[in-house]
Amino acid sequence: MPDEWSLDNIEGIGPVTKQKLNEGGIYNVLDLAARNISDVSDILGGDTEKAAELVNKAMTYLVQKGILSKDFVSAAELYKIRKSVERISTGSKNLDELFGGGIETGAITELYGEFGSGKTQICHTLAVIVQFPKDKGGLEGGAIYLDTENTFRPERISEIAENRGLDPLKALNRIIVAKAYNSSHQELLVKEMGKYIESEKIKLVIVDSAVSHYRSDFPGRATLAERQQRLNAFMHQLLRIADMYKVAVVVTNQVQASPDTFFGDPTRPAGGHVVAHMSTYRVYLRKSAKVRIARMVDSPYLPEREAVFIIDEKGVDDPPEEKKKEK
Ligand code: GTP
Ligand code: MG
User: Fold this and answer.
1) Ligand 1 site, residue 290, Cβ cutoff 6 A
2) What pLDDT is attached to residue 326?
3) Are 294 and 98 in contact (CB under 8 A)?
4) Ligand 1 close to Cβ of residue 212 (< 6 A)
5) Mean pLDDT, to the nearest integer, of 251-264?
6) Average of pLDDT values for 77-93?
7) Alpha helices for the chain (secondary structure H)
8) Which residue's CA lies nearest to atom 19 of ligand 1?
9) Which of 44, 144, 236, 316 has the lowest tally of Cβ within 10 angstroms?
10) Which of 203-207, 263-267, 302-306 has the lowest mean pLDDT?
């Protein structure tokens, strides 16, 4: 980590404060700016004023360094910035097209669908492909896999890597897996993520699934408000991580059969508005005979359309007919 990002650059951080911040998982200016004030306040023993001051100073420092913009920018400038956004291939040309070229960095992509629709398989495939060089669809980066359902399988990573021409051991070495045992643990893991993102050159953060712990920790209507509030804070944290560290964040979400709605789509994603609002891209997955279908549901600029893919020894792949057509 270059000195440029050292906490020593922020006025008002002496040795004691620095130590406290370190203990709270904040090691540099980016980590500090990525936290919300109430977190930093907890770390500093409840000193909210000091926390607000430090987070603001970190933000100002990042503006000075050109990492964050404080200015209003022209649409043309934004267009230029948008074109420089990096993407990770999904392993399927069809799916990549649906995503406008692959999974975007600096944004949250939500994959939702029923059980067995392929959410976890897409996550496994992305964790391998992100490691490839750019001309092969990757970003030469590592992946963090936050596993809340105990469905991460190193054997599957190994198989996908091997069938895509990547040394399986190397592939496994560049994926950091964290198992979250409940929603609080899941929140803690995300807070501590910054140091790995820097040291392991992480380009992809996966949360599979974002919502399941919140559903079991806050069951029923009585705790719904608290659940949504906690989930909201969690998603905010993820958005900051995507923004600050320019990584792609992918979250999965189960669909929820909602017996209390008689109208509309019975397969609404769990987490309701919260996850939906925070996600830049939302893709609905479903099974259909031998193939799987992905539909871009919400996107700032991509049309709502569908793509067909399959799951095979390479993880996510295009259906065989289409591969033949290309030849
Ligand atoms: P939930 O987490 O239960 O909501 O489902 P999901 O959407 O995460 O489903 P997942 O990605 O686990 O997809 C499961 C499907 O992928 C299975 O039904 C299999 O068809 C396929 N699949 C899973 N593992 C493998 C594998 O190792 N090889 C192949 N070829 N297919 C697999
Ligand atoms: Mg799954």
Assistant:
1) no
2) 57
3) yes
4) no
5) 66
6) 87
7) 15-23, 29-34, 37-43, 48-64, 75-83, 93-98, 119-129, 154-163, 168-173, 183-191, 194-199, 212-217, 224-245, 272-278, 320-326
8) 116
9) 236
10) 263-267
Closest residue by Cα to atom 17, ligand 1, is: 116
Ligand 1 centroid – CA 278 distance (Å): 26
Query: What are the structure tokens assigned to 89, written together?
Result: 């291939």
Residue 77 has pLDDT above 80, yes or no: no
Q: What is the number of the ligand 1 atom nearest to the C-alpha of 118?
A: 11
- Please tell me the pTM assigned to this model: 0.85
Q: Please work out whether the CB of residue 155 comes within 6 Å of at least one atom of ligand 1.
A: no
Q: What CATH number does the domain located at 3-64 have?
A: 1.10.150.20
Answer whether 113 contacts ligand 1 (Cβ < 6 A): yes
Q: Which CATH superfamily is domain 85-326 in?
A: P-loop containing nucleotide triphosphate hydrolases (3.40.50.300)
Please indicate whether residue 121, judged by its CB atom, sits closer than 6 Å to ligand 1: yes
Portion of the chain with pLDDT greater than 70, in percent:
91
Q: Which atom of ligand 1 is nearest to the CA of 156?
A: 27
- Max Cα-Cα span within the chain: 65
Same fold, 3-64 and 85-326: no
The reply to whether ligand 1 has any atom less than 6 angstroms from the CB of 263 is: no
- Among the listed residues 157, 95, 104, 107, the one whose alpha carbon sits nearest the alpha carbon of residue 129: 157
Q: Write down the domain spans for the chain.
A: 3-64, 85-326
